[in-house]
Amino acid sequence: MSKVVIIPENPVSRFLFSSTQAAWFWLAVRLYVGYAWITAGWGKINNDAWVGENAGAAIKGFMGGALAKAAEGKDVTSWYATFIESFVIPNAKVFSYFVAFGEVLIGLGLIVGLLTGIAAFFGGLMNVSFLLAGTVSSNPVLFILATWLVLAWKNAGWYGLDRWALPLLGTPWSGKKKKNEDGSDATIDA
Asked: Could you give the angle at the alpha carbon of 19 between the alpha carbons of 154 and 112, nearest 5°?
């Protein structure tokens, strides 16, 4: 039988990523990132080139610029250019709706603190997609903040709907019993 080695968490990461006392910090980060996403998405939903009769036009234009950068050997790698050319542009209308409504949903999830880690993950995924397409803008900062929110998923939504939603889903504040190494019961606390 192999022995399980548990490496204790350092006090700083325990505070930032597991303590509800740090939740005020994560609330500020969530609101900032959520506001950035919801305003970007709302602008796209109200733009005919993203959602509506001309849906897909904005994506085609944006991705055409990314392909031009790839052709010049700047900012966009060849494998991503191939992905853009063979998958994104032929499905520009679908991607257009995904981006517009996805941004709004990410923003809402972060602002109300519902499934914060999942919303932050998809926000980070979109930031990386924009970065790979050669657009810097606010994407590096938003990606870093999204990554931190993913790491802080347990307490980042404490001042939000996650405080009640996550226990209903069975994690992390359910107060479930866990066995210690000696077989005695240990309560998992927040």
From this structure: 45
Angstrom CA distances, 18 to 44, 51, 176, stand at: 36, 40, 16
Bridge partners of 130? none
Query: Mapped to the 3 state alphabet, what secondary structure does 65-134 carry?
Result: HHHHHHHCCCCCCHHHHHHHHHHHHHHHHHHHHHHHHHHHHHHHHHHHCCCHHHHHHHHHHHHHHHHHCC
Question: CA-CA distance, 170 to 20, in Å (whole number)?
Answer: 18
pLDDT at site 173: 53
Residue pair 157/166 in contact by the 8 Å Cβ criterion: yes
- Measured CA to CA, the distance from residue 64 to residue 3 in angstroms comes to 55
CA–CA gap between residue 147 and residue 174 (Å, rounded): 25
Strands 185-187 and 177-179: antiparallel
pLDDT tens column, 129-143: 999 999 999 999 999
Give every CB contact of residue 76 below 8 A, 6+ residues apart in sequence. Answer: 66, 67, 69, 70, 84, 132, 133, 134
Place of tokens 């849906």: 55
Q: Kindly list the distances between the CA atom of residue 59 and the CA atoms of 41, 137, 146, in Å, as whole numbers in the listed order.
A: 14, 17, 23
Q: What is the pLDDT of residue 7?
A: 87
Q: What's the whole-model pTM score?
A: 0.85
Decide if 172 contacts 166 (C-beta within 8 A).
yes
Q: Do 100 and 50 touch, CB atoms closer than 8 A?
A: yes
